[in-house]
Amino acid sequence: MDVTLATILLGILLAVLIVIPRLRSTSDQPKKVTSNAQNKAVKSYSKAEVALHNKRTDCWIIIKDKVFDVTSYVEEHPGGDAILAHAGDDSTEGFYGPQHATRVFEMIDDFCIGNLEI
Ligand code: HEM
After folding, report:
1. Cβ–Cβ < 8 Å for 100, 28
2. Pairing status of strand 112-116 against strand 44-45
3. Which residues have a Cβ under 8 Å from the Cβ of 44 and sit 6 or more positions away?
4. Which of 100, 107, 108, 109 most suits a substitution to test ligand 1, by most atoms within 8 Å of the C-beta?
5. What is the pLDDT of residues 25-81, one digit of tens each?
6. How far is the CA of 65 from the centre of ligand 1 (A)?
7. What ipTM describes this predicted complex?
C-alpha cells in the first residue's frame, strides 16, 4: 500500500518536473522557427564584390556591416541621386545623416541581401 502511494506520488512529481515543462517548450518552438525564418541576411559579400554594383541600374550599398541592393529604390529615393554618391561602397555616414528621419532606419531591412565579409 505504501509502495503504491509512493509510486503515485513519484509519478505526479515526474509529471510536474519533467513532462509539463517539456510540453511547454514544445509549444514555444514554432515561435522560435518563425523568428529564425525572418533572418534573411545569411550570404556574405566581399567589399570587392559589392564594388561591382556601383551604378544606377545595379546599385548595392554598405551600411554598417550589411549589404543592401537598393537598385529598385534609386528612382524612388526622395533624396534623389544622393543615394548613388557611394554606390558600390560604404554609405553608412550618408545614411545616418540628419536628412533621414528614424523611420528610414527601419525601411532598409527590405533591401538587405547579406552581410559584409570581414
Ligand atoms: C536604403 C537606403 C535609403 C533609404 C531607404 C532612404 C530613404 C529616404 C527617405 C524616405 C527620405 C525622405 C526623408 C525622410 O522621410 O526622412 C530620404 C531623403 C534623403 N536621403 Fe535617403 N535613403 C537611403 C539612402 C540614402 C543614402 C545612402 C544617402 C547618401 C547620402 C541618402 C541621402 C538622402 C538625402 C540627401 C535626403 C534628403 C532629401 C531632401 O530633403 O531633399 N539617402 N531618404
Report:
1. no
2. parallel
3. 114, 115, 116, 117
4. 100
5. 545 544 433 334 455 547 999 999 999 999 999 999 999 999 999 999 999 999 999
6. 19
7. 0.85
